Amino acid sequence: MNKYHIITYGCQMNEHDSENIAGLLEAMGYVYEEDPYDSDVVVINTCSVRENADKRFFGVLGQFKKKRRNDPDFILCVCGCMPQQPRIVEKINKQFSWVDIVFGTQNIAKFPELLEKRIRTGRRQREIIDNNPVIDEQEMKPKRMFRHKALVNITYGCNNFCTYCIVPYTRGREKSRMLQDIVREISCLAADGVREVMLLGQNVDSYRDAVGHDFADLLHAVNDIDGIIRIRFMTSHPKDISDRMIDCFRTCDKLCHNIHLPVQAGSDRVLKRMNRHYDTARYLEIVDKLRAAAPDITMSTDIIVGFPGETEEDFEATLDIARKVRYDSAFTFIYSPREGTPAARFTDQIPDEVCHDRFDRLVDVMNSISLEKNLEYKGRTYEVLVEGVSKTEDNAYAGRTDGFKLVNFTSDKTPDEIIGTLVNVQITESKTFSLEGVEVERN
Ligand code: 5AD
Ligand code: SF4
């Protein structure tokens, strides 16, 4: 039996690509193997959004060199965002020429053919095209990570060209799938037992299909699918979020009261240089509208510190907006220059020690807000969709509230009985990044 292993870096888009790649490999008769060094085929699905992702990738690549040398039948494949950059493919071909297969973010459907060719001819395969039509998801049979929740692409690529970001260069121009195709895919998932869908796009708010359906239309259509009980989406872009979309929090009963709304910075001057197309006043107006539509909505965000030219005053404006919004959670990043993006050429880069100092101060503020918010949950009972057994405790399960809070809790039920169902959990302990509780009969 041939065995495969996939190593995935980066965002949920990449995770879903890996699910598709796993599905393709299993259709070819491969079986999943936990240990990459005991596998016949290893796929490294890469991310290039920040520099440490780059460095880690080349480190991991190096670790396979010996296995590749000692085992002529072993096949190492690299895909994802890294090979979408010509300089990376050059580096692979020069320094890691023993890598067997390299393919891009838009060539996943081609992977079985490349693998078959590599096995038949023994020759290495390279296939990176970035103007392919939208992947036909209906043709894909992803091997999903969870039985009860699924990732569903609604758009590919990005047209926004935030000046720090490499994604528009690695994932190409934005393309929306047809609403009907998305609905058909989710209906099949629901029939297969999926209860929660996460709609994925770099900017879901700019979704528009060839016949003019927008993101609000799509949410309504998904809300009507029997069997689905929770709808999530990411990522929202403040520049494109519409009142019609915000209103969906009132009108679509399955839409979870949670939003990931990257702010990136709290200084209007920095936002402008980031090419974000909104200012803090507009951002705060959206937050108010969201909270009016769904008072219990939870919010998370992405923030970059140390963007070129960021002054202490700019940074304090970021702390300020974080305190105003009071996010439930935040992903905080130190600005990392990405070759080929406009910001990498800005001459006023911020010294490392200033970045690290600001980063630490920001994390302290964000974490204390997260904890304060989570403390409000203590003693109350929430509906939790059970995802699996808890990673941290025996006889415990993990699940998410409607607002995406991670809850570790105890229950007398068996995994077969409980996983994939909604249960009521009374919160007994609040931590910065999770809640703890115990299953109770009802509210
Ligand atoms: N440096 C630091 N953070 C970045 N992000 C994107 N590009 C960069 C970069 N060059 C962050 C943004 C984005 C998240 C996915 O990654 O905050 O929202
Ligand atoms: Fe990158 Fe901006 Fe597109 Fe998000 S919206 S993927 S940050 S360019």
Present the secondary structure layout:
Elements: E1 3-8, H1 12-27, E2 31-32, E3 41-46, H2 51-63, H3 65-70, E4 75-80, H4 86-95, E5 101-103, H5 111-121, E6 125-127, E7 149-153, E8 155-156, H6 167-170, E9 175-176, H7 179-191, E10 196-200, H8 215-223, E11 230-234, H9 243-251, E12 258-260, H10 268-273, H11 280-293, E13 298-305, H12 312-325, E14 329-334, H13 352-375, E15 381-389, E16 396-401, E17 406-410, H14 415-418, E18 422-430, E19 435-440
The structure holds 5'-deoxyadenosine and iron/sulfur cluster.
Task: Summarize this structure briefly.
This protein has 443 residues and is of the alpha/beta class. The chain has 14 helices and 19 strands. It folds into 4 domains: 3-127, Rossmann fold (3-Layer(aba) Sandwich), CATH 3.40.50; 144-256, Transcription Regulator spoIIAA (2-Layer Sandwich), CATH 3.30.750; 260-375, Transcription Regulator spoIIAA, CATH 3.30.750; 381-440, OB fold (Dihydrolipoamide Acetyltransferase, E2P) (Beta Barrel).
- Beta-strand fraction estimate: 15-25%
Distance between the termini: 50 Å
The mean pLDDT is 94
Count every helix, treating DSSP H or I runs of 4 or more residues as helices: 14
The overall number of domains is 4
What would CATH call the architecture of the largest domain? 3-Layer(aba) Sandwich
Please summarize the sheet with the most strands. Answer: 6 strands, parallel
Write down how many β-strands occur, each being a DSSP E stretch of 2 or more residues: 19
How would you name the CATH homologous superfamily of the largest domain? Answer: Methylthiotransferase, N-terminal domain
CATH topology of the largest domain: Rossmann fold
**Strands side by side in the biggest sheet:** 2-1-3-4-5-6
